Amino acid sequence: MIKVLFVSFESLPFVKTGGLADVVYALPKSLDKNDFEVRVIMPMFKTIKEKYYDGMKYLDHIYVHSGYINEEANVYSYINEGIEYLFIENDTFFNRDGIYGYSDDAARFSFFNVSVLETMIKLDYYPDICHEHDYHAAVLPALCKIRYNAIESIRNIKHILTIHNLAYQGEYDKQVLFDYLAFDYYYYENGDLRFNDYCNFMKIGIIFADYVTTVSKTYAQEIQIPEYSHNMDVVLRYRKDDLYGIVNGIDTDSFDPNTDKEIYHNYNLRNYITGKRKNKESLQYQLGLETKPDTLLVGMVSRLTFQKGADLVLGAIQNILRHDVQVAILGTGESKYEYSFKMLEQENKHRFVYYCGYNEALAHSMYAGLDMLMMPSLFEPCGISQLISMRYGTLPFVRETGGLKDTVEPLNEYTMSGTGFSFSNYSVEDLLNVFEYAYTQYYDYPERWKMMIKNAMRYDVSFDKSAREYEELYRKVLGK
């Protein structure tokens, strides 16, 4: 039995700010239980304590002394869907309303990494593999190989670091290495822990992990070039032989149009035409749009940022609205985008609607009721929304980057294959050209559109394939 410990700052169902939480929740459940014993370790945040504390089992007490950090913590266990979660309870760093964005984040992340190792020692639990997720956990391999290498059981642990979004790297003043992580200055001076005269958690993880993965094959290639690397391309090319792209999946139990309690009418491949139509009418009514089930309904469920292509949508929207379409957007983000979409709603009543905020139930309704979901991202490591939309028979309309390119197959009129529509260049012109093409398919070739819905709903969006690839990598890192 191979013991794998997932190390992460977030996971469903406990806390989520992005796709990282989906992966840490779904992947352990998908691994072969006969060969892999999986645990997850994460901080106990305030919201977790308020909701789950009574169901947790107290395990032990640890002391963390690391540079200027001198803290105590409790370790708790909680079983969720057959997976054991270990929670580090420390009110100084974790008992807060938010997860990220604090002035002492460097100390918080440092404490978490060291507390993981102190927990191993106290519980006498040493995994074969630590699977670290994003920069919040990325200094763990270096701690094992430098500070804790005198302990054989820790020195022998293998490490796999998964990069979920390279735009976030954890770059801090170099004093973090000494004040919070207690590394010897020698390792900064020789360059192992240095990146442009700073401390960069992601760079440390990339250098010290045995293997590095990211969440799609295309993104693994993209981040080795300056345009997408956020200054990390040289480091990643240095580790290119140990860099793997494994595309994410989704939890298909949570996102299933046949059983989803959040949508108006359940449906499957046998009755998807009726099901999609009923959900579309319900969504139009819910959002205050004209109830016109034959009108093309296009939507977006996204953070409203430059990365997500919000500027492209704004640049194209007036031309899009000249057509017989309705548009619905759900999400929050940069104030300039929020303001522009609010103005568009006022100018296009009953044809354009903007829901400023996030509503999980409404998101499910949109996945089920839209005809087409827009994701014109500048870059997208993997993307989750396009996978969910295909699961519900809503055709994704994406830019060919990262996981969007790997998961969405554009329509081929001759073979009748394809699960959506895509464009290559990051430009309003390209977006509009492909929109015109999709618009024509919807109105002039309804049978072709129905076939694409079938193709999308049949596409395997589960974590099963990804889990098999991770299992192979786990065995490889252990030499098995």
Write a compact overview of the structure shown:
With 480 residues, the protein is an alpha/beta fold.
Features:
9-stranded mixed β-sheet; Rossmann fold; 2 domains; 480 residues; alpha/beta; 41% helix; 21 helices; single chain; 6-stranded parallel β-sheet
User: What's the domain count?
Assistant: 2
Counting DSSP E segments of at least 2 residues, the number of strands comes to 17
What order do the strands of the largest sheet run in, or round the barrel if closed?
3-4-5-2-1-6-7-10-11
- Fold-level CATH name of the largest domain: Rossmann fold
CATH superfamily of the largest domain: Glycogen Phosphorylase B
How many helices?
Answer: 21
- Helix and strand composition category: alpha/beta
Q: Main beta sheet, described? A: 9 strands, mixed
Question: What is the terminal-to-terminal distance?
Answer: 12 Å
**Global geometry:** elongated
Describe this protein's structure:
- The protein is of the alpha/beta class.
- It folds into two domains: 2-249 and 464-477, 3-Layer(aba) Sandwich (Rossmann fold); 272-458, Glycogen Phosphorylase B (Rossmann fold, 3-Layer(aba) Sandwich), CATH 3.40.50.
- The protein is 41% helix and 20% strand.
- The protein contains 21 helices and 17 strands.
- A hairpin with a 2-residue loop joins strand 3 (57-66) and strand 4.
